[in-house]
Amino acid sequence: MRSFPAACLAGLLSIPVAAQSGGAVSPPPGWYKGDTHLHVQLCLGLPQLTPEDMYQKMLDEDIVFGGAQLWGVNLPSSQAFLDQFGWLVTGAESPTTLGDPVHFMQYGIELSEFRTEQFGHAQLFGISSPYLPFDEPYPAPAFDLVRQDPKVLTGYAHVNWSTSYLPALVPVIGEGVDELGIMSPLDAALGKIDFIESPRVNIDPFFGWYGLYYKLLNSGFRVALTGGKDNSCLNTPITMYSKVEQPLSFQGWLESIRAGRTTISDGEHLFLDLEVNGAFGLGDELQVLSTSPLNVKATLTVGPGVQLPGQKAGSIHLIHDGGAVQSVPYSLPEGGVAVAEFTLPVTESGWIAAWANNDTAFLDGGAHTGAIYFTVDGKPRCRKADGDYFVTWADYLLTAIQLGTFDVDPVTELPELEAYVAEARKVFAAVAACDTPDPVGVQRYGVSKPSCKGPLHLDVTGVPSVTATDFHITTLNAPPDAVGGLLVGIGANPSGVGFPLFPAYVDLLLPFTSFPVSSNGGGYSEILVEMTPTVLGGTSYVQTFWFNTPSCTGFAGGIMCSSDALELTFQP
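Above: the chain's sequence. Below: its structure in token form.
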């Protein structure tokens, strides 16, 4: 049964779409309405929709891109699902919309009412085969299978999360936990998901999609924000717009989501956009200096004829790294456009978004954009509070798994799942360390040549010492699933010049050695370094370099990217 914990219901109760009706906005050119959570199979024993019914629903609600998610409701087995619905999953546009040049529908799968749903309802778009490991206990095996195809898009449906950083207020393990997407932070850290989905914009002080979304972005995990009505059970009034390139196609819509070019609103009467420095929009990444503030403009469009008076006035907020830092009121009694301009000084890499709330926020949460990212002085995006929070969450989740809270075989499945949690936990720890002063014996220099994930960050797991038995050198934000090398030399090259493929901060004209390194799906790498007494009191210089992959070519271009560098002075 699809149910939410009582603490979460306030932010997710469905308001009938008719109560939100009024003047629908016309999005700017290039923006199109889509929905990542449509169903032909309904709840409460209601008759199943036909593909033609779904197409008519898209026409009635002016949905240009419909992500039709098949799930296992009222089906006794995975085989029954495959027999009844498998033929619809082709990775191509549904024949129902194929003759319509401005409406597009494709069938994917929501892992709901299958065993894996206990850790959250994973969503799979663009998949060309319905044959999934439905009986696996957690979503990662399905992600690993389908993400071999670079066109596939994956994420989690209707996430809901605590806004607190207190360990006691992490999502409660128990009834309804399958709705929360509790595995999603681990999957984001390991590069297995592209988005999280909101069922409502509504900003609740304690729980909401933003309780997760903000923390993921603060950790440097680039995930997109989508909106899905879930017409089977929730049937919320969420509306999502995406900026899609011509010629229009369903795959083009998926790519716009992957790029983060999305904005959501409760109902059809609001559209919110954001731009920086007059040239950068949602999903873009800026390279800026700490001496150059950002010039930000948020544009809110309110449709004419909105019925509820309170929806015609409110405030536009600038969200910076998860907090509302500046606000501008708006009043549009007849509908129209409100522009809020902000000047934002920045000293550290981060992200911004815009949120518009109106005077009836309890009934209608307004609108919220996806993010624009910025890198300041070549430093990565990372925040200790969020890394530490997710370390705590990984430990909490692992304890719950080991206590038998979930359906996991203790012999064949528990070790695999424990290893998965442990791998993600290393990434969370590296995020926290990235925003922590370097330990004794470590001096940082040089600037990364970024990968597609942003600047690479080199770090160590402790004080460099010849007595250390677990001293690792780590890299954060390397190209996912890539190979490279660790340079270890006796001299530094502070300027980085002299090597054409990347700035080599280890002096390659003096004795040096190189060790092979590889990254996981989240772009994280660690290598155990064994020291000998001969280096006691000595100094070494280290840096990693990486070969870009076809799916991660790097912001700076070229075939390689590289980290910053460390000077390591080994302690007794």
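Residues 301 and 337 are 4 Å apart (CA to CA).
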